[in-house]
Amino acid sequence: MNSDYRDKNSRKKQSLVSSFYFAFIGVITALKAERNLKIHFVMTVLVIFFGIIFELTKTEWLLISFAIAGMIALELMNTAIERVVDLVTTEQHPLAKQAKDIAAGAVLIYAVLTVIIGLSIFLPKIL
Ligand SMILES: Nc1ncnc2c1ncn2[C@@H]1O[C@H](COP(=O)(O)OP(=O)(O)OP(=O)(O)O)[C@@H](O)[C@H]1O
């Protein structure tokens, strides 16, 4: 009974480690394949660099973190949706188009927010 519990517990721990590993592999896979994600990562490095130069406050760093992490996470979800759609059909289908366009729309909306956040933080400091 006790060893059953230990086995189950160690399997759970192992699967938690595997989950993190597979999630990390997912990020790397998408990064290699998706040009947009590469752009986001380059932008992230630039924003962090200028954030250090302009000595952002804690609140500004938090806002920037939300913008960056949200953008990358959403782009990853968009990529996942594109993959699933392509897996379901390679034929042209109106629902496939809708799924891809709606997912891209979600990215677009968040991108507008990140531009607003970026401008409202950096513009006053540049000017
Ligand atoms: N199976 C399909 N049926 C109908 N329309 C599709 C299908 N696949 C893609 N499309 C349309 O073609 C456009 C381009 O599709 P694609 O798979 O190249 O994705 P994308 O939007 O260019 O994404 P990314 O540039 O991030 O890879 C989509 O936005 C969608 O409108």
Automatic annotation (TrEMBL):
Subcellular location: Cell membrane
Residue numbers binding a divalent metal cation: E34, E82
GO cellular-component term (any): plasma membrane
Domain of life per record: Bacteria
Keywords: ATP-binding, Cell membrane, Kinase, Lipid biosynthesis, Lipid metabolism, Magnesium, Membrane, Metal-binding, Nucleotide-binding, Phospholipid biosynthesis, Phospholipid metabolism, Transferase, Transmembrane, Transmembrane helix
Residues annotated for ATP binding in this entry: E34, E82, E91, Q92, H93, K100, D101
Residues where substrate binds: E75
Predominant place of localization: membrane
TM segment ranges: 15-31, 37-54, 61-81, 101-123
InterPro entries with a match to the protein in the record: DAGK, DAGK_sf, UDPK
Active site, UniProt feature: E75 (proton acceptor)
Cofactor note: Mn(2+), Zn(2+), Cd(2+) and Co(2+) support activity to lesser extents.
Topology class, membrane: Multi-pass membrane protein
A Pfam family matched in the record: DAGK_prokar
Keyword Chaperone in annotation: no
Signal peptide location: none
A molecular function GO annotation: kinase activity
Gene Ontology biological-process entries: phospholipid biosynthetic process
Cofactor field: Mg(2+)
Family the UniProt entry places it in: Belongs to the bacterial diacylglycerol kinase family.
Stated name of the protein: Diacylglycerol kinase
